[in-house]
Each structure stands twice: as C-alpha cells, then as structure tokens.
C-alpha cells in the first residue's frame, strides 16, 4: 500500500519523496537510540563510577579520560583534548548550621556552601538574622538594620510559571549576587533559600560571585534547604531575635589544568563548515551530576554514534564538545570559542543539551528569523516523536560564546517540571534519569543535526569590512 | 497597555473579548492549582496513610470513606456513595520462585501472582519450561511440546513505540489470556514477562482471565520481573532442561459490597446535562497505587475545587466520579453507566485521568469529528501550558460504558515514558509522583471542563425511534 502511494507521487512531487527520506532517516535514528542507545550506559559510568565532577577535581579529570576513551572507541575521524585552565574551588568538610531561639536551644538545618564562597571563621559564624525577599529590600532596610547580621534571602521560585527555568531566572540573583550586595551594607554572611520549587531537605549549591568586593570584605554564603528556609522564616516571625550559626571551610585554590573533550566526524562535502553538539562535563560536587549535565554530555556523544550507525555521513563537519567548567567559570566554552576564532573556523550550527535528561519537548532557537522559520518548517517530521516546541530563545551557556551573525544556535528543551528538584543538589543522581527519556533527547538532537546538515542553514548577508 | 488594547477591540470584536476571558479563567485555574492545589496532599494520604486499594480490601473501603469525607469538605451541592458489588481476589502470602539448572542448584527470581490467578498446589509447582514470544507460538509448538510444562511468555514491550501505551497494548495479551490459552495445550502454569520497558527487579501484576476454562482446568499464572525474564531466557538457552518452581496461594473470594464515590456541582442553567471527571479509586496491592490511579482520582477531585475557587459556576452539572474496581472487574464503571441509563440521565461529556500523574501533554478525544474539531480549536488557549496534543482516540476504561452517540469522551494524556516502570508494581509509590506535574494535570482537566461547559458540545442529529 505504502509502495503504491510512493510510486504514484514520485513522478509528480519530489518534496514528497524527500520528506519520506527524512521520515525514514529520523525513524532510524529514534529506533537506534531506543534499542541500542549508549547514552544510558555512559551516564551510568559517569555517575556511579566517577560521580560529581567539579572543575579541577580528580573526578573531573577521570571524566575527561573516560569520555575521550569512549569517543575513541566510536571510530570518529578525530578525537582530542583541548587544554583549558580552570578555577578550583573546594567545599572542605561538610557544612553545619543551626538556629538558636534561646541560648542553648538550637535546631539544626541543612545548608551547603555556595560555589565560590569564602569560608566562615574557623569556629563558625553566629549572628542575628534579617530576612529579605530579595536584593531590592537591602536599600529599604539600610545599613542600620543589616550591619553585623546574616541576611536571609527567602524569595521562593514562582510556582505559577510553567517553564521552571523562568522561575529560576527570577530568583537566582539572590544566590549569585546576594553576598556581594549584602556585604555593602555590613552583613557578616548570607543564607539563601535553595533554588527549588518543592519543599524538601536538600540544600542546592550553585555559583556566586563577589564582583569587585575586596578579598578581605567578602562574606560567606550558603544555601539552606526549602524546608529549612520555611522553618527559619516561621521561627523569625515568632522570635525575631533568633540567631543563626553556620560553619563552612570551603576555599578557592589556584587554577589547574583541565580539558574540553572533542570528537569529530569530518564533513564529506563542506569540511570547513562546523556543527557542534555538546553539554558540560563538569558538575557540582553534591550529587553525581546526572541531570546537570551528565545527561547532555552522553546525549551529545550519542548524536555522532546515532548518525554513524544509521549510515548518515554528514556533509559538514560535526563535532561533539564536552565543555569543562560551565558551572563555576565558563572557561571551557570561552576557550573553545577563542580557539575557533584564532583558527578562523566557521561554525554554522551549535546545539547544547543542558536542561536535564527529561522527556524532550523541543528546541529553543537563537538564530535569524529565516533560520527559525526553516526549523519550524520541520515540525511535522518531529510530530511522531511528540516534539512540539520550536520557539525563538536562548541556546546554552557553553555555546553562547560561539555566537556570530548568521549562525544557528539551539538548546534542547526537555520537560522542566522536575529539574529543580535535583539541580545542584545531593539528589541529582543517576536513578532520577529515565533511560528512554534520555534516549529520546539524544535522538531528537541527532534528528535536528541531520536536517541542518542536509538542508544547510540560511546565511545572512554579512556586512564585510 | 493591556486595558487600552482591550477597550479598542471590545467594540469591534466579541470573539477577542471572549478569548481573553477564557485566557484569564484558564490562567486562574492553573495559578490556583500550582499555588494551592489539594491534589498532592490528598494523594499523600491515599498513598501513605491508606496504601494499595485492591477491590474488596479494607484499604479500598478506607479510600471510599476518606475521599467522600474530603469531597464533603469542599461544599459541593451533593456527595454520595453509589453501591456496587465487587470481586475480591487476595494475594495471600508472598509468592516464591526459582529455577533449577541441576537438582539442588537453584536461583531465586522475583515473581508475583497475576490478579485473578488461581494458586499453585500448596507445595508449589515445578516443571520444565517452554519459552514463547506470544500466544501465536502455542499452536506451532503443539500439545506435545507444551503439555506438563510451564509456558514462559517472554515477548518484550517494543521500545521503538514512542507512546508506551501502544507498546503495552502490543504485549498485554500474554498476561491477560496467556494462562487460558496455554491451558488448552496442557500447560501446568504460566510465567509472563512483566509489562515493563526497563530492566529491573520488580514483577508487575495486572488482571488475567480464564475465559470459559472450567474451574478445575485453570492453571496458575505469575509475572516475573524483566531482569528475571532475561536471566531465565538465557538460562534456558544454555540449559533447556532447567526447571521452574513457583508457589502462590492467591484466591478469589465472594463478591463484597463497595462503592463509587461521587460529588456534584449542580448545573446553574442546564442541570440535566451532566459532565463527568474521574479516575479509579481501586489499585493493585503491590505498591500504593499513586500513579495508577490515585493521581487520576485526586486530580478529578481538584477539578471541582479549582472551578469553585476561581469563581466559575458550571452551567451544566459537573460530577467527579471515583470509580471502584477498574483493575479487576470494571464493576464501578459499569454500575455508574447502568444507573445513569436507568435514571435517564443525559451525559454530555466525560473525562478520565488514568495514565499516571506525569506532566500533561494533551487529550485523546473520543467524539464526533465536529466535537474533536471544536476542542482542537482551543489549542491556542492551552499552548501557554505546553499542552499540545488533541488527537482522536480512546478515553478511559471507566467512562467507556457511558458512551452514547453525540457524547464527548476524553482521556488526559500525560507524558508516558516512565509510566510502565511503575505500573502495577511495588514501586508505584508516592515519591515517584511530582507535585507540579500532578497539579498541571488537574488544571489541564479543569480547563477543558470549563471550555466544554461554557461552549457546550455539538449535538449529533440523533435518529429517534
Ligand atoms: Zn548545567
Ligand atoms: Zn489504572
């Protein structure tokens, strides 16, 4: 039945034939991912044999070696390590915190140092607490009410935002800049409500920065679990004089040598036009970094394998790049872009997966209107795989520095509802990644790479100097 | 800015105004669900205080009482219990199984009796094994190769099917009819590979039936975990004479009294036109039935609360129905439809949630083309909530018996990738339900109910007698 139809249309309609070839190739990609996908096994090793991979750690180095070795085994045209110096921050011994409503009457709460924070004094730090809903509150309170105290940032993520990344964006300034800003008013430390939409006992770490705060004026910053934040807030309402104690001995060491891991299938027709798929190989240290971003790494690795196994030879050069140090420095992404510019490499397309290994829903596309429209025109090809979202928006932190006019950048967009339950916390672990969801993401990425390679991107008229 | 636009368009375009009113109402529903949703708390109680709710069990009765009490507290117009007699099957002591490659050399494997199965002899049952890929293989093998043996049904779910329910449909005949069919060839028992797409150690139960097999010819049936199935299959290849032993003492008791739980908001304008939202209150006994179908019950309950809280008064009568005995008898669904017919009630719409409490993706709609089209016309209203699927298809087992020409039936369709990891197994438990995903499902259901109520369904020309 199918063959008869095909023959009838073949004579009158090449687009129909071409559509069918695309349908077949994309089906082959999904079938291969769901039956012989490698992503889950790779992730198992990264998560359970290596674990959390903070930049500069032994684990990060193991991850570099392991992923290079796995890429070597795929029979790509080239695999190499790209050197990059990375910051090394270490957490030290586990943090400890409590609040005290009367001398001697204390309640422990789960905290963790924010990445990049200084330590507390060796004996810890105890002070009164001033709760705020954000940095904006500091000015209203003024130095009088803040100096000598611990500032407790407690603005929760907005549960009514359907895309949880929007809720994250709306809160994360507290974590990133909270200490630098509170320090200006004489605060002695900050405690930040974890960036988590649900109530639980996990503190969530993440990067923070001191801006131009002189080293001797930097104050320690920690995240408190959402349950801890609720409890502390209630306690402060009943007992505004309650004191908070915390102790952490994290520190920033000298930069160390690390690497981006890169594998390449050289383009058969346009080897100088480069397409990148990637994720970041580093992770925070509390969990094993399965969703953030072990998932994105192993999906990106599998994209090359999926195309190879389904017999598709890219016309353009296709690289998988596992970027180092996204979490606390972005050194890998910046280095890759710097080297590309120095070598005058032409990158036409880059796709990052760094939003968790959940069921893929679509892509966010950072490109010219023509390119966005071209990708949206492939919607029907993705419909059988329940990929519905093709909207204009950001792509990924690591590929951002590659951005140039005419280039197409995209980010895989999976379901976001569970992501912040795990993000940067002790429970970002392998058992929370579902094999099929991970594989569907890899296949979705490979399918877009296939279409971009086959049809090309639409170049913008460049204004040449 | 918004107000100015509104005023401008108000004069020329009522559809625009009406669209905006819909947008506002739907946003209010989602906001309420995501900030004050009750579904998760109710599910917590059903799952963690009551637990698995097999028809006829004490837990099922507790669930009836608890949900009635909760509906009573919502200030609905009516709440009642609808009596229905249900079958009572009990598992008895935990099942036990091993295979034996040489006398005395045994390996234990996890099994569970299938719902409705007879027990093994008191001392268990030991026999050689014949592995098949499905019922079709029985005829090819013939009585000679089957008589006196245990038939091992080992066709896995097809991983390439994107909708995992399709993969389930493609396999579940082994579970439901495997024993009745194998019995015809003289088999003494059947072991069925669990309906699970991943490899793990949980056996998955589920209903089976003996058809017209005389009572004294019924053979016991159990499910084996997917890892167990793989191991058994490998063992049989190396050692075709391996024997399988299993012991279970489940049994079917007399029917007992139970209830559908029903709550109603009586319609303000068309009280005789009835809309139903529901799920099934019974579950299997191995886990706590959180996804199947505690989720659907608490979402359905919250639909009425969400409409109430957002100030929407339905023109039509809206009922939540928590059906008893979907899993092993369908008595609740049949009883509800029977009573409705006896009372000449006119049901215009029914919506069931019975596919897990995962992120909602859309609806499957069983209705006339005009009604499917009308619902698809509301697509843009659902787009902000990432609800993209509005396809023609089945609705739900419990509401199926209500079906009449002109009626609109629908099923909530959440993400399906993880569902069969938990379905009918010990790990269908509360911690695998995400609060936001559950709440988004409730809001999605309430939004469709709102639109159906506001715009009505499109009646088919009925051929009257
Ligand atoms: Zn990340
Ligand atoms: Zn069910």
Write up this protein.
Chains A, B: Homodimer. The monomeric form is inactive while the homodimer is active. Chains A, B: Keywords: Carboxypeptidase, Endoplasmic reticulum, Glycoprotein, Golgi apparatus, Hydrolase, Lysosome, Metal-binding, Metalloprotease, Protease, Secreted, Signal, Zinc, Zymogen. Chains A, B: Its main location: endoplasmic reticulum. Chains A, B: This is Carboxypeptidase Q. 2 copies of one chain form a homodimer. In chain A, 37% of the residues lie in helices and 24% in strands. Chain A contains 14 helices and 16 strands. Chain A has helices at 2-10, 14-36, 39-50, 58-72, 136-146, 164-169, 172-183, 226-238, 290-309, 331-342, 369-376, 379-382, 419-422, 435-455, and strands spanning 78-90, 96-102, 105-108, 111-113, 125-132, 150-153, 189-193, 221-224, 243-247, 251-265, 270-280, 316-323, 346-352, 360-366, 389-392, 408-414. In chain A, the strands form 2 sheets. An 8-stranded mixed β-sheet of chain A has the order 1-10-12-11-13-16-14-15, sandwiched between helices. Chain A has an 8-stranded mixed β-sheet with strand order 3-2-9-5-6-7-8-4. In chain A, helix 3 (39-50) packs antiparallel against helix 9 and helix 9 packs across helix 14 (435-455). The longest helix of chain A has 23 residues, at 14-36. The relative contact order of chain A is 0.17. The A-B interface holds A 30-31, 34-35, 159-160, 162-164, 197-198, 359, 361, 384-386, 388-389, 415, 417-418, 421, 434-437, 440 and B 30-31, 34-35, 159-160, 162-164, 197-198, 359, 361, 384-386, 388-389, 415, 417-418, 421, 434-437, 440. The complex binds zinc ion (ZN) (2 copies).
